[in-house]
Design a protein that fits this description.
globular, 12 helices, two-stranded antiparallel sheet
Length: about 290
């Protein structure tokens, strides 16, 4: 792992010397993940709760349109995939109740677990590595509440299973807008989830970046990127009024991926420097060169 010293030089050190092993998660039962209970004595839970309340207060149709207009010009910066991943050394996801390790550690944990189970599907391994890369928006002026966390459609009734959603949308003006607060809102029945305007965040942004830069992933991989945080749908069972047969295929792909995204967070810290050559080859195969972000 590359770490900046006090004199701003870069050193290569074993990340286990810097990042404490997350012993609290060793042997953690599956039902203990994604614990969003409120506890103002727990700083991680307090941080997570605030992130979601800020998100749910501000995430309106007009807000999402504004972010799409801002970010989908792809004129903010240029970077290789590797350099963007290294940037994630500096990011801890404020919406995640399961870990406080930098995102790059989680990226390699996810990729390596997929590699164990799908050694021949190198595209799937790379999806695991890059799935959170859209979070680089946090380094370009965006607060984490519009970068990280679970996603949901705007412009229709809020799903019942949205985290904190029974209270957290009370200050959102779209909650009281009759064009948006009904079961279908601004959409048609069975329109398909790909036609929903999702809350702005790292999923949608990275999906659009990959499409814009002509990534060579199969469609299944792009689905995994775009909807891996859409828990109210693929885990909570909400938004069935919009789904089609095609969406069942999308959900199957997302669920295939999400078991590696979520349940690797208690795994050992991988030797990132030793793994780079393997994943650099995959990057060169599927999404090479300098990308427009």
């Amino acid at each position: 792992m590359k770490i900046k010293n006090s004199d701003n030089t870069i050193s290569m050190i074993d990340p286990s010397l810097l990042l404490r092993p997350e012993k609290v998660y060793d042997g953690k039962p599956l039902e203990a993940f994604r614990d969003y209970s409120v506890d103002d004595k727990d700083p991680i839970k307090e941080r997570v709760c605030k992130t979601y309340y800020d998100m749910h207060t501000n995430m309106t149709v007009d807000f999402v349109k504004g972010k799409m207009d801002k970010w989908l010009k792809f004129n903010h910066f240029k970077s290789t995939v590797k350099d963007a991943l290294i940037k994630l050394n500096e990011l801890v996801d404020e919406s995640d109740p399961d870990t406080d390790l930098p995102n790059i550690v989680h990226a390699f944990q996810t990729a390596e677990r997929i590699r164990q189970d799908y050694p021949d599907d190198d595209w799937f391994q790379l999806i695991g590595l890059i799935h959170d890369l859209g979070k680089v928006m946090a380094f370009y002026g965006e607060p984490q509440w519009c970068v990280v966390g679970d996603t949901f459609p705007v412009g229709c009734q809020w799903g019942k299973s949205i985290v904190y959603g029974d209270d957290s949308f009370k200050a959102n003006p779209d909650t009281y807008n009759d064009d948006y607060n009904t079961l279908y809102g601004m959409y048609k029945p069975k329109c398909g989830i790909e036609n929903l305007m999702m809350s702005w965040g790292h999923d949608e942004y990275l999906y659009r970046v990959l499409k814009h830069n002509n990534a060579k992933f199969p469609e299944e991989g792009l689905w995994m990127i775009r909807y891996h945080s859409f828990y109210p749908w693929h885990a909570g069972g909400d938004y069935k009024q919009f789904t089609t047969e095609r969406d069942e295929k999308i959900k199957a792909a997302v669920l295939k991926f999400n078991q590696y995204d979520l349940y690797t967070k208690s795994a050992a810290i991988p030797d990132i420097e030793a793994l780079w050559p393997y994943y650099e080859n995959l990057i060169a195969k599927y999404i090479p060169g300098t990308l427009q972000w």
